[in-house]
Design brief:
Elements: E1 9-12, H1 14-21, E2 26-28, E3 32-36, E4 61-65, E5 71-77, E6 83-89, H2 98-120, E7 123-128, E8 137-142, E9 145-150, H3 153-172, E10 179-184, H4 188-191, E11 197-200, H5 208-211, E12 226-231, E13 234-239, H6 253-258, H7 260-263, E14 267-271, H8 277-284, E15 289-294, H9 297-309, E16 316-320, H10 323-332, E17 340-343, H11 355-372, E18 378-383, H12 390-404, E19 408-414, E20 433-439
Parallel strand pairs: 1-4, 9-10, 14-15, 14-17, 15-16, 17-18
Antiparallel strand pairs: 1-3, 2-6, 4-5, 5-6, 7-8, 8-9, 10-11, 12-13, 18-20, 19-20
Helix pairs in contact: 2-3, 10-11, 11-12
Length: 440
């Protein structure tokens, strides 16, 4: 028997209905026809164009229904975002109380413990937004620190429930957390009507009776945002306050491991090295030489520090330079000093409108790499933009190989590590592509 629904209903177009029934959790502004109150509208007539007329608050839960009134799901309402509703459940019997969210947290943690194992569980993504049923929430664990990013109004309203319950669930598993850092310093929050901010999460006074035993949730002046993690036997210093995104890119964890067998005895060029992770893995694997390049001087400084901590500083040459310029310079010398090139650039596009320019950028660096590599050399190349889908990325690689006059022997096609799960009905979760080829 279904629970009596007390939520305002959003009436969805036929196109939006098909989209939702296909498994996608987003309902766009253009797909919402109107809103109605099922309690007062006994005849089922459309009664308003805006849910605010019913007292619906930004970020609260509404029900999505078809034009005929059939229940589709429930989700967070956002009055400013083009994504007007982010679905969180398709079960009409769900009650979105604390117990509901505690179950969601437990599901997410149990999944990571299963797919990552005890060692990698200490350094992984604990919650990956829609893929875990928390639209707009990212939580990365770096040993004893959590880095949290909130991008939706619905999650923002719940953060004083979700963060303490997450810390509590980890404590129940014997996992001690020293602090929770908010990395809400991203412009996309403005589209949700949320302020940009960053800093340590502090439990509200009214919640301290329930969660005050967790010191990581209390104000602690001088708490360090630096922590040490170990990945693939390599030690890194992570800065959750100043590092890119949430502090460190976790999604390439097993892709970095995958280059070990190829990097041994190779002359490696690691482009867009950031914290030096691919370069460090190549050096640890026994590369003959490694050159790590990034345009950011601060990134090179952190990469150098990581190399020093791992006893690899004298085995890696660090270069602060624009990768595009460096590859062009190397081509002009008409030499082939490297036999393994790694391309791990930042997302060249975060919008469908600029995908053409992004494709040109991917093509330029991959073409240069293929021209620089000798026959029998190796290329690892990645894209972290979901707009650059597999088909488009692969066609770009084929075109680049053709122009370079070489063929590509595919060794592996990989994606993100399983703590960043891909939902097949949500293409936005399938963003990372990682290919390893031999040039023949």
């Amino acid at each position: 028997m279904k629970t009596q629904r007390n939520f305002i209903q959003a009436v969805i177009t036929k196109k939006g209905t098909k989209w939702v029934q296909g498994g996608h959790p987003w309902i766009y502004e253009a797909e919402v026809l109107s809103y109605r109150d099922p309690a007062s509208d006994t005849e089922g007539k459309i009664t308003a164009l805006s849910p605010e007329l019913f007292g619906v608050e930004n970020g609260s839960v509404v029900d999505a229904v078809t034009e005929n009134g059939k229940y589709l799901g429930s989700g967070f309402y956002s009055e400013k975002s083009k994504i007007r509703i982010r679905l969180i459940s398709e079960n009409a019997n769900d009650r979105f109380d604390r117990e509901f969210w505690k179950r969601r947290i437990r599901y997410a943690l149990d999944y990571r413990k299963t797919v990552m194992g005890p060692e990698d569980y200490r350094c992984c993504r604990l919650i990956f937004g829609e893929a875990d049923g928390f639209p707009g929430l990212t939580v990365d664990r770096f040993s004893d620190l959590l880095s949290v990013q909130i991008l939706s109004q619905g999650i923002e309203r719940l953060r004083d429930i979700l963060i303490p319950e997450l810390v509590k669930a980890l404590a129940e598993d014997g996992e001690r957390i020293r602090g929770v850092y908010l990395r809400n310093d991203v412009k996309i929050r403005v589209l949700e009507g949320l302020p940009e901010e960053k800093g340590w999460y502090v439990l509200p006074a009214e919640a301290q009776e329930d969660y005050g035993m967790f010191s990581c949730l209390l104000e602690e002046p001088g708490r360090s945002p630096l922590t040490a993690i170990t990945e693939n036997s390599i030690r890194y210093t992570v800065d959750v306050e100043n590092g890119q995104k949430t502090g460190f890119f976790l999604d390439q964890k097993y892709n970095r491991q995958a280059i070990w067998k190829i990097a041994k005895s190779r002359r490696v060029l690691d482009c867009f090295t950031h914290t030096g992770s691919f370069a460090l893995n190549a050096a640890m694997a026994g590369a003959e030489s490694v050159t790590a390049v990034d345009i950011s001087a601060s990134a090179i400084a952190m990469a150098s520090k990581n190399a020093l901590e791992n006893g690899l500083f004298d085995r890696i040459e660090f270069v602060t330079a624009d990768v595009f310029d460096l590859l062009s310079e190397l081509l002009s010398k008409k030499q082939k000093p490297y036999d393994f090139i790694i391309l791990d650039p930042p997302a060249f596009t975060k919008s469908r409108r600029t995908i053409g320019n992004a494709e040109k950028g991917y093509r330029e660096i991959n073409l240069a790499a293929l021209r620089l590599l000798p026959r029998g050399g190796y290329l690892a190349t990645a894209s972290c933009s979901h707009f650059m889908d597999h088909a488009r990325f692969e066609q770009m690689l084929k075109d680049a190989a053709s122009e370079a006059g070489v063929s590509l022997r595919q060794i592996e096609v990989r994606g993100p590590s399983p703590d960043h799960p891909v939902l097949w009905n949500v293409p936005e979760t399938e963003y990372l592509k990682f290919y390893i080829f031999q040039v023949v």
